[in-house]
Amino acid sequence: MTVGRNFNSYAVVGDRVTGFRTVTVESGFQALATSPVSYRFPSFSDPNGTKDLVRIVSGPYADVYVSPDDAGVSFQPAS
Fold it and tell me: What burial class does residue 65 get, using C-beta atoms within 10 Å of its C-beta: 0-12 exposed, 13-18 middle, 19+ buried?
């Protein structure tokens, strides 16, 4: 996967997104990531909402969750 200079890092507990923050890094990077998993992400407008996230598994941002649907994130599943 490729991640740009600005990306959202999501906090996950169990099957639920508990928060997120915007991270700014010096330059974009490439990393290996898990396949997308759908996590519960309720909001006022959609109490049953979900968010697809991948967990970065390599490099300095290993164990950080990002969304392949967010701007600046490009995810290609392994073939």
Answer: buried
